[in-house]
């Protein structure tokens, strides 16, 4: 069952339609990646889900009912513009914000101690936010987002501004929160994290949802029948064109050195992997045979470029 659903969301700014009939489904206990180029409409959708902004039409369904104001307590939201109080001390502000989200002061203290210890940042507790670097402030904001243990977490561009080490730390924490049962949605225009952590994705391009589904299924459905092969160079001295002629595939690229042949193939329609593999293994001392399945980065670029050239 969907834990969060948007149904036909439309949002207009004065002279721009930012969202056009966007319907997404986020399943319980999963990580959903909201992808799209800059300006596609991701933050607008996230702000509508968080009730910071109001849709012109359409509905947000949360845990089986139309979203209400008090549902916001069950949501942790990391905004793209990280808005904390600059002059307030880190711990004081985290405890204050957790109390606003329903935690007792005592529980807030306990939770904060847990996270500060985990991130090894206990020394920051009495510093004012403005005394911390940008990366440190982002860590604090991340803790504030998750510390009231909401069932649903929304991170708007969670990795932007972090160095690779801290981005990995945040990625690991997101995976850990999923293990503990949270449902998570995050937006990104950076594909590096997507395969590793998302179960499902939605791709928004120019205000419209253009692709949605499970990451593995989307990758499968974009297969193009391409293969990478490496074999030991035959000793017979035959030329590669003759040896690689086949009813099953066409040769695409070929590289050789004294020991190996590396080549890519494109399969002919109606052939399967077994036919290609058995033919190659009869002809060659085969080292590797791998079908190239497009990654989300390739699919993102391909889909967006195709749509934009058809506009
Ligand atoms: P993304 O998060 O995918 O980068 P946004 O949702 O921030 O995209 O923006 C989508 C589009 O809506 C952009 O063209 C942006 O300029 C426009 N937009 C966003 N917020 C406002 C606003 N408050 N007023 C007018 N236009 C806006």
Written account of the structure:
The structure is a single chain. This protein is an alpha/beta fold and 311 residues long. The chain has two domains: 2-81 and 144-220, P-loop containing nucleotide triphosphate hydrolases (Rossmann fold, 3-Layer(aba) Sandwich); 224-291, Alpha-Beta Plaits (2-Layer Sandwich). The chain has ten helices and 14 strands. Residues 13, 16, 18, 36, 38-44 line the site of adenosine-5'-diphosphate (ADP).
Poorly predicted ranges: none
Give the number of helices: 10
* Major β-sheet profile: 6 strands, mixed
Q: What ligands are attached or bound here? A: adenosine-5'-diphosphate
Report strand %: 25-35%
CATH topology of the largest domain: Rossmann fold
Beta strands, count: 14
Mean pLDDT: 91
Question: What is the end-to-end distance?
Answer: 35 Å
Structural class of the helix and strand makeup? alpha/beta
CATH superfamily of the largest domain: P-loop containing nucleotide triphosphate hydrolases
If strands are numbered along the chain, what order do they take across the biggest sheet?
Answer: 6-7-8-3-9-10
Shape: elongated
How many separate domains make up the residues? 2
Radius of gyration from CA coordinates: 25 Å
Quick one: CATH class of the largest domain? Alpha Beta
SSE arrangement, N to C = EEEHEEEHHHEHEHEEHEHEEHEH
CATH architecture of the largest domain: 3-Layer(aba) Sandwich
Helix content: 25-40%
